[in-house]
Amino acid sequence: MTNAALSRSKLAIVGAGLMGRLLAVALAKRGAQVDLFDQAGPDAKQAAARIAAAMLAPLAESAITEDSVVRMGIYSLPRWKSLIGELTSPVFFQQEGTLIVWHRQDSSDAERFIAHLHKNSLHNPQLPKAQVLNSEALREIEPEMSERFNQGLYLPNEGQLDNRQLLDALAIELERLSVKCHWHNAINPESLRDLGLYDQVIDCRGTGAQTAWNKSQKTLRGVRGEVIRLHAPEVKLRRPTRLIHPRYPIYIAPKENDVYVVGATEIESDDLSEMSVRSAMELLSAVYTVHSGFAEARILEMSTQCRPTLQDNLPAIEHHHQDGLADLILINGLYRHGFMIAPAILDCAMEIIESGSSATAQELGLSITKAQSSHGVTACV
To answer: N or C: which end of the chain has fewer CB atoms below 10 A?
Structure first.
């Protein structure tokens, strides 16, 4: 589909979380007529993207994820700058690096972590090299941390943004660009496809798309995450900070107005009930060991959500074509890396929508499956 054809096209997107909103805005800017459907409202309260720290940290995440996800994260950092710069409403964005700290008794774990990052930096020259900090260097980078730690690790160029500001800003863009939003409408993408009203239907439902992905024999599950939001005016951290710990490693992401997002629990469960006492105690105990100022912090919120995760913990796009029907494109599996890799997924999806293939996806290692159906027979290509 050429740009001219895209400007004459009509598309439906089901799921107005992070990916659904980014795609709807991008398509509307190209002149497409876009209908957006979501089972919740414009506040995105049921979206996994609302319960996140939104850290953009490919080097830090390289310790626990595949190289393709790291490449997507590297690609996405500068793209976030341009995407946010195009929005009407301001969104907090910071690229001051990541600080890693550890207590003395966890030095052996820290050494292994440092060695792993060093190996990853050699393997991928686009990754910056981690900088080992002595007490003086730590005091210069993050003065308040030097009271409890005499060493650390600095990962330059990594960033973060405010996830809720971004979701709200994208909602404003949807209205400004005349995207027709069907809130509180839990419709099935295949039902929309059968209507014959759209040129393409895009499924961005996250964990709500389990049935659709299971049809493709790719198991989609929810991985529970728990996050605490604190108001801590006595704490003045300048950048996201991670604590290496054998039992409860945590991250602390400072947002505007002395708000801190604390998290890192990861539970193989699709349970969406309230946070457990155990998780709350571990997160709060750990954050206090990082900075004593958190003792007087006020708990704004304890939240849970399930991250959509495919069986290999990697993102994927499926492109289904059937004669006489609109193309159906499924996007899912962003797991714990949603904000870090979203611009890369967005650009790959736009290429597929426009041309049926994506050179960017091939370059980054994003899995793209093409399924062609005719007379009831489906073949993957």
So the answer is: C
Tell if the pTM clears 0.90, that is, is over it.
yes
In the chain, the largest separation of any two C-alpha atoms, in whole Å, equals: 70
Q: DSSP code of 134?
A: -
Token readout for 99 is 């600080």
Distances (CA, A) of 22 to 15, 27, 168, 210, 344: 11, 9, 12, 21, 11
Reference 50, options 203, 157, 170; nearest CA is 170
Q: How far apart are CA 167 and CA 18, in angstroms?
A: 7
Instruction: Kindly list the distances between the CA atom of residue 204 and the CA atoms of 34, 224, 330, 340, in Å, as whole numbers in the listed order.
Output: 14, 19, 7, 17
From the list 181, 152, 183, 137, the residue with the least C-alpha distance to 45 is 183
CB 155 within 8 A of CB 100: yes
**Is residue 321 a contact partner of residue 345, using CB atoms and an 8 Å limit?**
no
Can you read off the two tokens belonging to residue 1? 């589909």
Q: What is the pLDDT of residues 94-140, one digit of tens each?
A: 999 999 999 999 999 999 999 999 999 888 889 999 999 999 999 99
Domain with CATH 3.50.50.60 in the chain: 3-49+163-207+312-380
Report the CATH architecture of 95-159+222-309. 2-Layer Sandwich (3.30)
Q: Which residues pair with 299 in a beta bridge?
A: 230
CB-based contacts of 107, cutoff 8 Å, min separation 6: none
Helices within the chain (DSSP H only): 3-7, 18-29, 58-61, 67-85, 107-123, 135-141, 163-176, 189-195, 210-215, 277-290, 338-355, 359-364
Q: Where do the CATH 3.30.9.10 domains begin and end in the chain?
A: 95-159+222-309
Compute CA distances 163 → 50, 111, 214, 239, whole Å: 6, 32, 29, 16
Homologous superfamily of 3-49+163-207+312-380: FAD/NAD(P)-binding domain (3.50.50.60)
Parallel, antiparallel, or unpaired for β 241-244 and 377-380? unpaired
